[in-house]
Amino acid sequence: MGHRRRHHPDYLHLSKDAAFTLAHAAYVRALGRIELIFAFLASVFYFQEKVSRAEIAGVILLSGAIILIVFEKTA
Fold first, then answer.
1. Which of these, 27, 32, 35, 34, lies nearest to 69 by C-alpha position?
2. What's the rounded Cα separation, in Å, for the pair 7 and 5?
3. Any residues with CB less than 8 A from the CB of 62 and at least 6 apart, and which?
4. d(Cα 19, Cα 33) in Å, to the nearest integer?
5. Closest by CA position to 31, among listed 71, 1, 58
6. How many angstroms separate the CA atoms of 52 and 60, rounded?
7. Helix, strand, coil % over all residues of the chain, rounded to 5
8. Counting beta carbons within 10 angstroms of the beta carbon of residue 46, is it exposed (0 to 12), middle (13 to 18) or buried (19 or more)?
9. Residues 6+ apart with CB under 8 A from 16
10. Is the full-model pTM beyond 0.70?
11. Please, what's the largest Cα pairwise distance for the chain?
12. Measured between alpha carbons, how far is 32 from 44 in angstroms, rounded to an integer?
């Protein structure tokens, strides 16, 4: 049996510049999630809504994920 080379569609082959552009877009999208934190803080402090422990845990996890994404390249 001969070794067959798999053919990948052209859209899977990205140039170096395109890959960096997509990587930066991923960071921008992830950092765009910070609006959820601001909305949560506004609902608690401005609108004085009651929040559950699950919501607080979710905001803490989201904040941690954003911090990890931001500082990923510096490590």
1. 27
2. 6
3. 33, 36, 37
4. 22
5. 71
6. 13
7. 70, 0, 30
8. exposed
9. none
10. no
11. 70
12. 20
From its phi and psi, is residue 39 left (phi > 0), alpha (psi between -120 and 50) or beta?
Answer: alpha
pLDDT in tens, 26-65: 677 766 778 888 899 999 999 999 999 999 999 999 899 8
Rounded to whole angstroms, the Cα distance separating 5 from 27 reads 34
Q: Take residue 5 and report the two structure tokens written for it.
A: 């080379």
24 or 51, higher pLDDT: 51
| 31 close to 70: Cβ distance less than 8 angstroms | yes
The tokens 């990890």 sit on which residue?
68
Least Cα distance to 23 among 75, 62, 55, 69 occurs for 69
